[in-house]
Structure formats: C-alpha cells, structure tokens
Design a protein that fits this description.
heterodimer; A: about 160 residues; mainly alpha; 6 helices; elongated; B: about 130 residues; 4 helices; about 80% helix
C-alpha cells in the first residue's frame, strides 16, 4: 500500500492514512499519557516535604504528552480532512501543520533538552540530597527516588 | 506537499517550512551534541539521544522535500521512506521515555539496560513494518 495518487476511493485513502501515519501517533499518545499519569500516581507515596526538598513538581510530567499532542495533532487532523473531503485544507491549518509538526526538533529540544538534570548520572547527581528527606519518609519513598535517579528522572 | 508553489499560498508555506525546519535542525543538532558530550550515558540520556537523532533526520527530510519537483522521483521516494521511518521512530522513542518513567517510578531494581535493548529491536521492527506498508 502506498500513497498512490490513483487511489480515489476516500474510504481506502482514509484507511491507508490511518494505518500508516495516524494510528502510530494515536497509540503513542495514549501510551505516553497513560505512562505519565501512572507515574504521577506513583509519586503520591512521596511526602509533600520530600517533594519540596527535591524541588519536584509531578505535574510537569504532563508537559511531555501535551507537547506530543501539540506537535502531531495538526498533522492528524490535516490527514483526516484531506482524506475525507476532496478539498484543500484551509491555509491557517496548513500553517499550523508546518509550524508545529515540522518544528518537532525544536519542540523536543525545548522539552527534553532543558531538563538539565536528565544528563546527570548517579555519580554526579543530587542523589545525596535525598538525605535531607524527613526521617518520617518511609523506605518505599527512598527506593522509588533511587530508581528514578538511576533512570535519570530526578528532575520532576 | 502542502507548500506547493503553484497554490495561492504556496510561497508563504514554502518559506514557513524553511524557517521551521531550520530552527528544528539547529535545535536537534544542539541536542545531539549535548547528549554525545555527556558521559557516562544513562538510559534516559540514550532515549533522548535517540529522539534527537530521529528528529534530526526527519528535519533533513523536510529540507529535501523543499527541493523536489515532479521529475525527481528517486529523491521523492527516498524522502518518503526516510521520513516515514524517522517519524515513527520519533513517536516511538517519546513513548519509550514515558514507559521508562513509569517503570522507574513503580518497579524496584528495574533493568533499564535490558529495556533499552528490547526497545531498540522493537522500534526498528515497528518502523520498518510501517515504512514498508
């Protein structure tokens, strides 16, 4: 199956576009959103004081699916409009498509590149600052933080 | 191609594409440099590097498409194949980052190296299948 110009049956065209371009994005978006929501839920075992000491803001995690949605939603909608209706997409929409989807490198660089602590490793990370945790924090908080630091996710 | 110069707003879209793509190229290059420079590399860093490389190649495809015309079939086909592959890869690595974050927040002693190796194999397989389709 290709984007052959001779495909004029709109249902077939829609199916091809959905299969090749849209479905991977939709699946990726759902998994990303679910992953970060579940991660935020796991963070709830940490106490408020611990979160303040570590300067952790769990809701910053939602930026990741949000940027993914912002980057690919114009492309998704553009594909659907073009395949359902045999008309040109409005210019404003095409501009949004170009500026958002083609700026994927910029968007990801802002999102992932600015997370400086992601680049730190256990050796030079702020893992030692976990010792400022209030003694009332339980063992699971400490081991969760250890896992996150190991993975490079201590900046949340 | 949305910025077809024959269309009413073709030149505007063409220029916007070049601007967005240039910014994107610089940013993805900077991200690659930052990732390569940092040692030792943890799993999150490797995932970010994978995202940056995918974005960089996707951006090059956007540049390539600006120089295509109806006669350059080979360039167009090459562009389409690489574009589809890197586009899928980019979404895949972002998804992997979310999965890693969740797994790291849930499981104690989570084997990140094994996760990354599996992700590379699955990612290449998925992208190749979608590109062939």
């Amino acid at each position: 199956m290709t984007y052959a110009p001779e495909v004029t049956d709109w249902n077939t065209k829609l199916l091809i576009l959905m299969l090749v371009e849209d479905i991977p994005i939709i699946i990726g978006l759902i998994i990303t959103l679910a992953g970060y929501i579940l991660a935020i839920r796991n963070f709830r075992i940490l106490t408020k004081e611990f979160m303040n000491n570590m300067q952790i803001s769990t809701y910053r995690l939602l930026w990741y699916p949000a940027i993914l949605f912002l980057t690919f939603s114009p492309c998704l909608i553009d594909n659907l409009i073009q395949s359902y209706r045999d008309v040109e997409t409005p210019t404003g929409f095409e501009i949004a498509h170009l500026l958002l989807t083609h700026s994927i490198g910029f968007n990801n660089a802002i999102l992932y590149g600015m997370q400086r602590r992601w680049y730190q490793t256990k050796q030079n990370s702020s893992y030692n600052s976990t010792h400022v945790i209030d003694k009332q924090n339980n063992e699971s908080s400490d081991s969760l933080m250890h896992d996150l630091v190991e993975a490079g996710f201590e900046d949340f | 191609m949305v910025w077809n110069p024959g269309l009413k707003d073709g030149p505007l879209l063409y220029n916007l594409n070049l601007i967005a793509t240039s910014i994107s190229l610089i940013c993805s290059l900077a991200m690659c440099y930052l990732c390569f420079k940092t040692t030792p590399k943890n799993t999150a860093l490797k995932l970010i590097l994978a995202i940056a490389i995918s974005d960089f190649i996707y951006t090059i495809c956007n540049f390539m498409s600006a120089f295509e015309d109806e006669k350059r079939d080979l360039l167009c086909i090459t562009d389409a194949i690489i574009r589809e592959f890197t586009y899928t890869q980019s979404v895949f690595w972002v998804t992997c980052t979310a999965i890693l974050c969740y797994k790291a927040s849930k499981t104690h002693n989570f084997n990140q190296e094994a996760f990354f190796k599996k992700a590379v194999i699955i990612g290449l397989a998925i992208s190749t299948i979608i590109t062939i389709l």
